[in-house]
Amino acid sequence: MQRFDILSIEIGLHEWSGMACGCGRGADHIPTDFQKSLQSPPPDQTGEGWAEGHAYVQSNLMQPAVATASMVMAALAGGVPDEHRRQLFIVLATLVNGEQDDIADSCLELVRSGSWLLYEEIASGRDVDSASYAFEILALIDGESARLDSFHRVVAANLSPDLR
Prior knowledge:
Blueprint: H1 6-12, H2 29-37, E1 56-57, E2 60-61, H3 65-78, H4 82-96, H5 101-113, H6 115-124, H7 128-139, H8 145-155
Antiparallel strand pairs: 1-2
Helix pairs in contact: 1-3, 3-4, 3-5, 4-7, 6-7
């Protein structure tokens, strides 16, 4: 059986070159820069070089925000080095909480379709910050409160003290 790279497939689903990037260029460099970033230690600033200043500028979402959220979700599903998980969840939180409600809602809907990735992060106990960002993102999704409450009762110790 042949194994396929879901990140590459997901990247290929988006017309990156047709999107205006926050840096003023076409957004086609975002997937390349993202993949390169996963091969290096995480940058000091979250999303530096591929998300911050590109998919979003501070809390302002740019045209490639939804495609970037999709790419991050695919990377999380496909497996990323543990040291990158926290930053990827911070980027997702930024995308679903951005100032442009229509874009943020589209990002949240995309994340909703892969919500089990966020639940897995909460339950895993790998990293309290990643779990806490995943929890806060899930709390934004309509219809998730009962499931999220159940998870919270069981795995609250995996979350930051303010969410326990």
